Amino acid sequence: MSDLTRLTAAEMAGLLAGGQVSSVELTKAHLERIDQVDPAVHAFLQTLPEVALAEAAAADQARRDGEQLAELAGVPVAVKDVLATKGLRTTCGSRILENWIPAYDATVVRKVREARLPVLGKTNMDEFAMGSSTEHSAYGPTHNPWDLERVPGGSGGGSAAAVGAFEAPLALGSDTGGSIRQPAAVTGTVGAKPTYGGVSRYGLVAMASSLDQVGPVARNVLDTALLHEVIGGHDPMDQTSLNEPVPPVAEMARRGLAGDVKGLRIGVVAELGGRGYQQGVMDRFQEALKLLADLGVEIQEVSCPSFSYALPAYYLIMPSEASSNLARFDAMRYGLRVTPAEGPATVEAVMGATREAGFGPEVKRRIILGTYALSAGYYDAYYGSAQKVRTLIQRDFESAWENVDMLVSPTVPTTAFKLGEKLEDPLSMYLQDVATIPANLAGTPGISVPSGLAEDGLPTGFQVVGPARADAYLYQLAGALEAALVDKWGGPLLDSAPDLVALAAGGQTAGDAGSGGRGIGHQDGPTGGAK
Amino acid sequence: MSELYDFEDAIAAFDPVMGLEVHVELSTLTKMFCGCANKFGAPPNSQVCPVCLGLPGAMPAVNHKAVESAIRLGLALNCQIATRSTFARKNYFYPDLAKDYQISQYEDPIDYDGFIDVELADGANFKIAIERAHMEEDAAKNTHVGGEAGRIQGAAYTLVDYNRGGTPLVEIVTKPIEGTGARAGEVARAYVAAIRELVVALGISDARMEQGSLRADVNLSLRPKTADPAAQAAVPFGKRSETKNVNSLRAIERAVNYEIRRQAGLLSAGQLVVQETRHWHEDTGSTSPGRSKEEADDYRYFPEPDLLPIEPARAWVEELRATLPELPAKRRARLQAEWGFTDREMRAAVNGGALDLIEATVAAGATPAGARKWWLGELSRVANERGLELAALPVTPQDIAQVEELVGSGKINDKLARKVLEGVLAGEGSPEQIVAAQGLTVVSDDAALGAAIDAALAAQPDIAEKIRSGRVQAAGAIVGAVMKATRGQADAARVRELILERFSAD
Fold this sequence. Notes:
The complex is a heterodimer of chains A (about 525) and B (about 500). With about 525 residues, chain A is an alpha/beta fold. Chain A has helices at about 10-15, 25-40, 50-65, 105-115, 155-165, 180-185, 220-230, 250-255, 280-295, 310-325, 345-360, 360-375, 380-400, 425-430, 435-440, 470-490, 500-505; strands at about 45, 75-80, 120-125, 170-175, 190-195, 215-220, 265-270, 300, 405-410, 445-455, 460-465.
């Protein structure tokens, strides 16, 4: 059979349902692909061939037995290593959890297992999901499939690169300030952050509980929606999860893909564009708007003045919660334990030595920031003020919804930057999330879809944000845009990505792969030139 | 270190101000934020799950029953019940805290602004204002091994039992308690006793101080005493100490009195009271400093993002209010009215721990006065002798009611009744069985009594002469002699009647 890994998840599901392919075959194909390309990409921290193949065989058996199966049953999935997997090491990209084997499955993991999606492995991430490049993983960075010298975004660079490199058709991610959408944008893939509470957080190792949200990662809008439906819904184990049905995201994605978006009103956020945004990113964004206008979408500019304060507010609220959430890594019950070289091994000394050795610099930076922001005497000025900004941002959204159905912007101001480029400049790294953070602060859903390639030949993202619970409309609009762009390009954006197998066969390693991929593919398509 | 001050001198010079924090473990079936059993005494770490072990990714879910208990307690304490109550994280590192933060309440406690009336042993009343009562989870239990007396200092290692971790707690915090003077210790003790009585009446906690299911912290400060009592309230509070985990009612009173003397000693010597946590030592009857000021905690409270605010519907709160059981103070007032006891008699019954026993005895058919007489008289004396609580004596309210009935019907007299009780206490059976077995019925057969009277008169002719000459009170000696001769089984009243009949007939 031709390369199964190039299929969409929906196509795989169709072949499985029609009996033309088995889950075991699909899973094997992906495991082989991982063997071929992951040494260069390093999307996975751990692959689970035995587990995945056993689950695939069980899915095939269930199908033979005539069980009622989920649409995606048998289609393999990759899981970000921030989600607890029972009996399977879960590191969160950190040394401190190097050997932690959870005693339970995260609710979303349980759901994908119950839906019989074989789990291929655990994907790389910035340590505890803190970062925008996956370089803060304690186990080495992931490389962008479009250019192995570049970052795949973060924190979910592993999940985005895994689907972008055809190592998995689907992946689970988590998004606290853009960790699903920013990697999607810079790898030419699709990623959605559901409405806060739309997907259970139980078993998601928390960074900032009021901002974290689990979401789907895939190569196209429909696949993303299908996975969203698998993982969404109420969970009594997460009291912040919404007690209502999953929105009909797949149905609305299909409507959008069919071009049905006439009359939808979208607002272009004035504050998220222009200065600080790469020219190619803005160009692809404007072209996308024109395509949507051609489909009958009403477009207007909307000002959200408080969005300018979103980043600073985020960098007070997120570290504050993180400082508390990460306190439990204290060497007492699980994880790393380091006994100090000198002095008595008191509880405090062991806790200190363990945290010193087990956490990387970005994690320490945020713990210190958050501890400071919550301290007596500073709380009102920092955490308190940030919460007020959060309220203002929510009001900006509320007033926008009076005039438009959704807000749009470039997902990220730039294309993927080079490995190491921003490691010494945290503030510049933080700016990667300037457009994605407002949705987390307001708890609203957001999705990023590819909008093309910038002047540097690297992918750019188009973000749609909507009111809470309006996830389905985001998929509708994103589906329409994807269909229009794919039509214009003559194929999916990822068809333009470099051939990683050829790169690997050429003996190139991650370090010297260079920009081999850029410029190949549909030359007249993704880089623009819309007439 | 300064000397302990004499208590009377301390009270003459200083005015104590207290703040009491009482932790009540709720006896819900499951823990505060997970489905683990909430039961004392199971093997260590057998009642744990990802949530109460604080495993990465696990999330809390509020126990509805614990919220209900907290609201019922708030209602019983005359509190306002919050329309919107939030949880907060109290952050500090300690191995008994699985998440290294405790989920508690900070800004919006479930109950606030209440009061409780407490009565001291002599009937004096104090109204204690309640600042708030909030919900939280208990920490795990540390056992320090290898050091002295289970203390952390010098311990070789520490065992942590997370069974207790996550147990639902309500912490009740008073407003500053002023104006107690020398009675501060008594008031503190009576307050904790009242809280204990209340939570037991509500059925929300077993409130066993020795097991730690009710724990008290005592905040105490002194300020200079003013000559004019009316001016006292205007004097600012002094620096306070917080004495932790005082584990019996008696210890609370002692700890308060000790702290008054200690702080008075410091202040009189021109030294300052350090604001600190102190630990009570039952053996030495003293307190010692806990963590030093350098390690002063900054708990970095912030709203718990994993839990939604609790917004109890008013209808639900009113439903809970309507179904509150009769509360201890009200019950006492009702019983006193029903029984016709004087204030003094009622206090004696309460202080003697006899209220429930008297109530049950009356329910079994005895008169209130009779029940009170037996429980607070003879039986209290026996209990005291044996060092037992009244309720622990091997005698039931039904026994007492039976004794009462036997006396009332004239079958036995008071003297015989005491003998019967002795038998009951010795486990010889019910009063009726003992009466039957020992033949302890009163002799009221006139012929038998007449013979005994004749014999007594014959033995004491001088007395007989006195009675004959009209000195009726001299008949007592003959009655006594008859009682002696019948080993107490004679009906004394009948004997007296018969004697007087005899002489009037002459």
